[in-house]
Amino acid sequence: MNVQPLSLRTKIILSFLVVIIVGGSLSLFFGSRLVKRTLISQAQAKVRHDLGAAWMVFNEKLNDVKEIVDSTASRESIQDAIKYDRKDILFRYLSRVRNENSLDILTLTDSKGNVILRTRNPQVIGDSQAQDEIIRMSLMGGICSFPQIVNRSELIKEAQELADRAYMEFVETPKAAQRPEEKEENGMMLKAASAVVDENGGILGVLYGGILINRNYEIVDRVKEIVYKDEQYKGREIGTATIFQHDLRISTNVKDEVGERAIGTRVSKEVNQAVLVEGKPWIDRAFVVNDWYITAYEPIKNISGDIIGILYVGVLERPYIDITNRVILAFSVIAVLSVMLLLVLLFISTTRIIHPIKEMVLATQKIAEGDLSHKVNVESKDEIGFLANSFNKMTADLKTANEKLLEWGRTLEKKVEERTKELREAQAHLIQSEKLASLGKLAAGVAHEINNPLGGILIYSHLLLEDLEESSPYYGNLEKIVKETTRCKDIVKGLLEFARPKEPEATSTNVNELLDKSLSLVGSQSLFQNIQVKKHYSTDLPLIVADSSQLQQVFMNIILNAADAMNGNGRLTLRTYLDSSGKDLIIDFEDTGPGIREEDKKKIFDPFFTTKEVGQGTGLGLSISYSIIRKHQGTIDVQSTFGEGATFTIKLPIAGGIEDD
To answer: Is the pTM of this model over 0.70?
Structure first.
């Protein structure tokens, strides 16, 4: 079965359709995630702000208790009644204060912390409250207020009704952490205590009062009223607030499934771990009783810094989810309509593209048949028009192809000749290297063979010179023989050093001291009388492992060459320092001589090369120096501009040593 190939129009439309669908799907996916993340982030920022408002209400209530207790304790009538043991007056006045300010307890102790009056339960007195941290702080002469967990026995002392309010049986809560207990008997109280002080500053006792938060909804309802203004979404309150005693809801406006306050339910396991165990705030989505909320939790701490509960605010997550879904649906509808509109526009635009392409196909068929004179008649200014012009240009270019091939052949021959020349030069360099190696062997042989005869000539010439009077006509000739023989001996010595340098002896060497020693050896010569020597030594140079005598030979060679170049008049600058890496030691010899010609730089370290006059040098000094420095795993280079002096630079490794042969 033959499958009909797809037309170009169909391929273009399908390709664009795939791109549009994939791009739209990705945009919709990431866009929806971005929208959801943005909305949830805004909700989290809101609950974080709402939690701050909740803390203001919570602390405001605690401060109210503090101000009531403090202002009452500072009254002179209270002080006088305590002094004169007028408990009837104390009971009437303090009971009125407690009732007018809706306090759950208002109790008075003596200066040792023993209770002398309970306004709600006046029959129970005499027990000590000195172990209570808030009261103990106040007995020192101040005022103190903190949230506090009050155990059941203390609540019963104050009033049985308070103990009954605090008692709660746990309600089974989805996602809550497991607890061995099944009920809570203690209560959380906003408690304040203030010392009662006489006119002399003596402490007469402590007045303490408080509000039991268990089943007291004033704070949480005040938060909801201020922050959320009783807003609802689909019959459900958007914002909620809760005070937890540990993980138990003791005051809340979160509703359970039957619409009652969810007293006795507990916080989720994740929040329990983060807030109560780790002591961190929690701002995230959380499952609250029976629905998901965007929540904010922070620990409530007592006077000792121990976590005794949680303050919570939250907004229903459902409104944000619904907004996200509506935005995604709107995006989806817009995307579908856009795809349909694009398909219509794509069909129209492909028609304008396909027609000139068909003409191009016909033209290429004729060109393939050999009709190079055929022209493509497409006059559009777009890529297809450029393609048509390229076809037309191609037919013209084919006519000149053979000429270009011939020209390329000639160019190739020229490149072959150039490459052959380079190979010849390389071969000549190799031959020269082999000659130098042979020269070394020859130099060793020649030096060995002529050294002994030269020694004999020099000895007998000296003996004859000693026996002759200076007035003898042969005295001058013998002096010349001695001088030239000595020069030959120096050349032989240089040949031997070049051909067979002695093995270096590695020792710890101070380069600065070695430079000074080299200068002292040559400084007394008349050549140095008018040469100014400047030293720039680094004082923190480490010792290096080197043959000090060989290095001294190198230093003296370079110093003497510099003095010769300056003709005994100029400035010689010596520098020592470490390079930027700290691994190499650098020594610079800078002179103010005439410099070195560019063509001489390449040959300056070659054996027997010298720019001195005949008889003034062997041309082996720098070659031997080069060999010694290489033996020490270092380098020696020269920088010079003709007419502006020269600088020889020696680089020696600090951690290196001397190469073995």
So the answer is: no
